Amino acid sequence: MSFTPSLCHLPVKILVTTDESSNAEPLLDETQIKVDANLKPLLAEGKIPMVSGYFGRNTDGKLMTLGRGGTDLTAAVVGYALNADEINLYKVEYTQTEDGWLDEWQPGYEAPTAHCSPITPTQCLRVLVVWLLANRWIGIVHDAEPTVTIPVMSYDIAAELAHFGKKVLHPSTVFPAIRKSIPIFVKNNYDHSHPGTKIIAGADIDLSQPVISITSMYDTATRCLRGRFSSPRPQSI
Question: Model-level pTM?
Fold first, then answer.
């Protein structure tokens, strides 16, 4: 049995970011230079670079973190710089205890019946509600029917859903892929056979199904401002 050699590669050697600590954004052109110098030679030698995510360095060499979704964003930036055919994001599903601690890894949608037998019905309901809120299932799913994975959506729809509360994908993740029209696949760690959700350019979407998904934000009010000769402009308050 033969194995392809791999090599751990820290992102600080390739990921160049802006100066906003804990919320830095990758600089694609500068990162491209680092990837050309550090990762592409490894691939040419038949080695697979294993790049961790979440942090890089600014142009002055200071350590910067990317914030929420930083690992997915790192994968998208590396895929962009390598001119990848596709970017695959694998998500881990899990259950939580009543106190909010990680309880058990889950391969996907599976009701946690085992947790209900030794506790009261009220406690069981609490565990079930926490579990439903914590799990994201496979790919990007319909909240009303979480066993149904949305098979395909456009970059802009995915970014909008993420911006307005869909936690499975950070909105910044899609932007590097858009620059080079690289498809993104959102899959599941424990079920590699499932195709997940494919995120591609809007021109490739089937227009016979114009409404892909709807998202909303709770505890948010809007007001509409109108000048004498202007159109109304909604603002969140």
Answer: 0.71
